[in-house]
C-alpha cells in the first residue's frame, strides 16, 4: 500500500500530525491508515527518535523545497500508491462510476464541471462510492461521441469542501455496441372461424427488448384473422432511450412458402 520515496520529507510542512507511542515503521504506517482527522496519504518515520509524522500530502503536492534538508537525514518517507480502483456499470439510460476510496472518506465524488448538481458522498460498507450519471441532459454533462460511446469525467475530492492538488480526476466511458435482431412472425389465414396467432421472436443480443405485433384497424393485437381483413404489422422496441431501430429484409410469405412479397428491402 505504501512506497518509499527518496529525497522527500515532511519537515516544515503544514498540516502535519505528530503521532506518539510509535516504536517501529510498521506502527507508524498503521497509525496513518487508521488516522481519522484527515485522509493520511504519507508518513515519515525516524528510527532514532521514534518520530512519526502523518500528512494528507504526497509527492505530487510536496514542493521541491522540501527535499531532504540536513535535519531530515535518517528519516524515511512513505506514501500511498497513486492507483485508484475504478469500475463502470453501464445501464440503458445511465452510467455509474464506482470508486474504491480510502476510509474513512469525508469527501465526495462528482462529475467534472458539475460539483453541486451531480455528486455522491455516501460510502458503501465495502469502501466504495458510486456516482450515477444520466446519459442525456445537462445535469452531469455526459457527452455522446457517437457510435454508441458516452464519456464523462469524475473527480475524487477527499475534503468535503476544498479541492486540493492531491485529489484525482478520472475519465470514464461506456460503449454500447450496435446489435441486430432478426424477427420472425408466423400467422395462419383461414376462411371462417378465427384461429390463434403465434409469434416467435429470436434475438442475437440480450438487449434491447424488441417485439413484433400484428394489429387490427383499431390498433389492438389480434389473436386470429380472416381472409381479406385489414392488418398492420408493427415492430417496436421497449426501451428507446438510447438505442435506435430500423427494419430491413421484411418479407410476407404464403403458408406453403412458395410465394413471397417484399415489404421492406
From TrEMBL:
Cleavable signal peptide: none
Apple domain location: 1-83
Pfam families: PAN_1
GO biological process: anatomical structure morphogenesis
Superkingdom of the source species: Eukaryota
ZP domain boundaries: 89-265
Name of the protein: Apple domain-containing protein
Organism whose genome encodes this protein: Stegodyphus mimosarum
UniProt lineage: Eukaryota, Metazoa, Ecdysozoa, Arthropoda, Chelicerata
Amino acid at each position: 500500500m505504501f512506497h518509499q520515496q527518496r529525497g522527500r520529507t515532511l519537515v516544515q510542512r503544514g498540516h502535519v500530525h505528530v503521532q506518539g507511542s510509535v516504536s517501529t515503521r510498521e506502527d507508524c504506517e498503521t497509525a496513518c491508515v487508521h488516522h481519522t482527522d484527515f485522509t493520511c496519504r504519507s508518513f515519515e518515520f525516524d528510527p532514532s527518535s521514534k518520530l512519526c509524522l502523518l500528512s494528507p500530502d504526497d509527492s505530487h503536492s510536496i514542493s521541491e523545497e522540501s527535499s531532504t534538508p540536513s535535519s531530515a537525514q535518517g528519516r524515511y518517507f512513505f506514501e500511498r500508491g497513486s492507483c485508484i480502483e475504478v469500475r463502470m456499470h453501464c445501464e440503458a439510460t445511465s452510467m455509474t462510476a464506482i470508486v474504491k476510496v480510502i476510509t474513512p472518506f469525508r469527501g465526495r465524488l462528482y462529475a467534472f464541471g458539475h460539483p453541486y448538481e451531480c455528486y455522491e458522498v455516501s460510502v458503501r460498507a465495502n469502501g466504495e462510492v458510486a456516482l450515477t450519471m444520466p446519459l442525456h441532459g445537462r445535469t452531469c454533462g455526459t457527452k455522446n461521441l457517437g457510435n454508441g460511446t458516452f464519456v464523462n469525467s469524475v473527480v475524487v475530492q477527499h475534503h468535503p469542501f476544498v479541492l486540493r492538488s492531491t485529489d484525482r480526476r478520472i475519465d470514464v466511458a461506456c460503449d454500447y455496441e450496435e446489435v441486430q435482431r432478426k424477427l420472425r412472425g408466423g400467422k395462419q389465414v383461414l376462411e371462417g372461424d378465427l384461429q390463434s396467432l403465434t409469434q416467435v421472436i429470436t434475438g442475437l443480443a440480450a438487449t434491447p427488448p424488441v417485439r413484433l405485433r400484428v394489429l387490427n384497424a383499431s390498433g389492438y393485437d389480434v389473436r386470429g384473422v380472416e381472409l381479406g381483413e385489414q392488418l398492420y404489422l408493427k415492430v417496436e422496441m421497449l426501451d428507446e432511450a438510447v438505442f435506435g431501430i430500423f427494419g430491413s429484409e421484411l418479407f410476407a410469405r404464403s403458408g406453403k412458402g412458395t410465394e413471397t412479397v417484399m415489404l421492406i428491402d
